[in-house]
């Protein structure tokens, strides 16, 4: 059965780990949006792998992994990732790893403008400074450089020169920065293009011929970072919800019947923007230390808060979620009381509709009793302490969706099937 998997919060829900587990039942794993702003961690036999562009399915030799047209690709990061994975003994060849010729490519001027624009912004977003937004801007304004242009040295030279002339003008006039040398960027990036060329493959044709295989789409970021439905403007620059999987891959000809939503048992966020259940003080320290809540891409400390079921209910609807995966339940081990947000108040009044502006919102909480002992060793739902089961069952009933899997540790095997 073909499936799309997305994050239901603000990213870092544990998607990489869940993909690594679920891809056992799929043949082809496809990224469809975002870029190396993503950091997906998988821990196998004590070894930690962090993926920024390549689907984590690559750890399983027999799987085919692909980067769809909706992804923006930093060629430097892609080559570094391929090299690092190969040196860790992971097989990556043009047979098991493919990149769409229609992906847009990230260049140094995208990263620079991401950094400079952020400095000048009235309301900072806290981007990853990876050039993601500026690369999507170029795509939409039709001056972007696609993989297909990039791997053809003549067309690449022509397009790069045109872009650098234009970008340097803006750099000098607006930011007082001298800009980039066409010759230097061309020399460095043309060498990268030669290394990437073997992996570039017409995915529409390849997928169509493979349409009997089982596909799994790997979402990056999380629902509330979605460019349309997230907490705009504190969002990323792509559509991260399930409905973008077809558009970001060209795979409209396969039936998808599973929409898997991954949510942490609490909430985290990196970067700026509203966060109704955000915690400070001893609870923040607790989650950050116990959950090791530091960004896999930038290393920034993550903001932490209680589980917000108002947001999750919205995410379930937006993504048409058919099954849940709850991660990091083990991080709640040892808490005497656990709070869950069931509603919002503004100026003392309970809101009856989902608010488009989450700033100034006060959460309405329900309090649960914690459990004694640890859930880490649980491998069946019945192994969990009663209060942990009640917590999960409450989430399921509030959202009207069943949790199929629960993750209770960072290791590959720390998953229980419900
Ligand atoms: P992603 O971006 O959604 O793939 O998530 P990240 O990899 O950025 O962040 C999730 C972090 O939590 C990683 O360090 C994972 O190794 C870790 N992790 C995943 N699932 C669990 C879990 O169930 N328990 C614990 N303690 N850690 C987990
Ligand atoms: P994964 O796939 C968490 C956040 C950034 C910033 C905002 C915009 O690992 O869950 P951008 O660089 O995309 O323009 O930054 O989005 N952000 C993420 N936060 N996990 C991610 O990816 C993220 N990708 C982007 O921190 O707030
Ligand atoms: Mg991450």
Descriptive overview:
The structure is a single chain. The protein has 418 residues and is α/β, with parallel strands linked by helices. It has three domains: 3-102 and 199-259, Adenylosuccinate Synthetase, Chain A, domain 1 (3-Layer(aba) Sandwich); 104-196, Adenylosuccinate Synthetase, subunit A, domain 2 (Orthogonal Bundle); 263-417, Adenylosuccinate Synthetase, subunit A, domain 3 (Adenylosuccinate Synthetase, Chain A, domain 3, Alpha-Beta Complex). The protein has twelve helices and 19 strands. It has helices spanning 15-22, 75-87, 108-120, 132-140, 147-150, 153-175, 182-196, 203-209, 244-247, 281-290, 309-319, 386-399, and strands at 2-7, 28-31, 40-44, 47-51, 64-67, 72-73, 97-99, 104-105, 215-218, 256-264, 267-269, 303-305, 307-308, 323-327, 337-346, 349-350, 362-369, 403-407, 415-417. The strands form five sheets. The protein has a nine-stranded mixed β-sheet with strand order 7-5-2-9-1-10-14-18-19, with helices on both faces. Helix 3 (108-120) packs across helix 4 (132-140). The radius of gyration is 22 Å and the shape is globular. The mean pLDDT is 96. 6-O-phosphoryl inosine monophosphate is lined by residues 7, 10-12, 37-40, 125-128, 130, 132-133, 220-222, 225, 236-237, 270-271, 296.
Overall morphology: globular
Oligomer: single chain
* Helix content bin: 25-40%
CATH class of the largest domain: Alpha Beta
Overall CATH architecture of the largest domain = 3-Layer(aba) Sandwich
């Amino acid at each position: 059965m073909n499936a799309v998997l997305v994050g239901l919060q603000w990213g870092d829900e544990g998607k990489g780990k869940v993909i690594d587990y679920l891809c056992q039942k799929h043949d082809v794993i496809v990224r469809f949006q975002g870029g190396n702003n993503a950091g997906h961690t998988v821990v196998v036999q004590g070894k930690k792998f962090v993926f920024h562009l390549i689907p984590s399915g690559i750890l399983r030799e027999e799987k085919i992994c692909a980067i769809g047209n909706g992804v923006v690709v930093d060629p430097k990061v892609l080559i570094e990732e391929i090299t690092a994975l190969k040196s860790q003994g992971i097989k990556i060849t043009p047979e098991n790893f493919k990149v769409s010729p229609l992906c847009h490519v990230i260049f140094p001027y995208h990263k620079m403008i991401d950094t400079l624009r952020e400095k000048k912004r009235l309301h900072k977003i806290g981007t990853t400074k990876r050039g993601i937004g500026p690369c999507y801007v170029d795509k939409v304004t039709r001056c972007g450089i696609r993989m297909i242009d990039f791997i053809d040295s003549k067309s690449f030279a022509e397009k790069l020169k045109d872009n650098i002339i234009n970008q340097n003008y803006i750099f000098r006039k607006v930011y007082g920065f001298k800009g980039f040398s066409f010759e230097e960027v061309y020399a460095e990036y043309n060498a990268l293009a030669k290394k990437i060329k073997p992996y570039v493959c017409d995915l529409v044709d390849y997928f169509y011929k493979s349409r009997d295989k089982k596909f799994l789409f790997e979402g990056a970021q999380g629902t509330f970072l979605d460019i349309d439905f997230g907490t705009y403007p504190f969002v990323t620059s792509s559509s991260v919800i399930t409905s973008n999987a077809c558009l970001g891959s060209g795979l409209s000809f396969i039936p998808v019947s599973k929409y898997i939503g991954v949510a942490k048992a609490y909430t985290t966020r990196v970067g700026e923007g509203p966060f109704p259940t955000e915690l400070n003080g001893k609870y923040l320290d607790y989650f950050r230390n116990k959950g090791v809540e530091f960004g896999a891409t930038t290393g920034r400390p993550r903001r932490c808060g209680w589980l917000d079921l108002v947001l999750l209910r919205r995410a379930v609807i937006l993504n048409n979620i058919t099954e849940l995966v709850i991660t990091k339940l083990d991080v709640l081990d040892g808490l005497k009381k656990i709070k869950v947000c069931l509603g919002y108040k503004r100026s003392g009044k309970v809101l009856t509709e989902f608010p488009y502006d989450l700033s100034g919102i006060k959460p309405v909480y329900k309090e649960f009793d914690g459990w004694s002992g640890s859930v880490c060793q649980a491998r069946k739902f019945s192994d969990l302490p009663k209060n942990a089961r009640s917590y999960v069952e409450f989430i399921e009933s509030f959202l009207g969706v069943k949790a199929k899997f629960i993750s209770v540790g960072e290791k590959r095997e720390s998953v229980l099937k419900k």
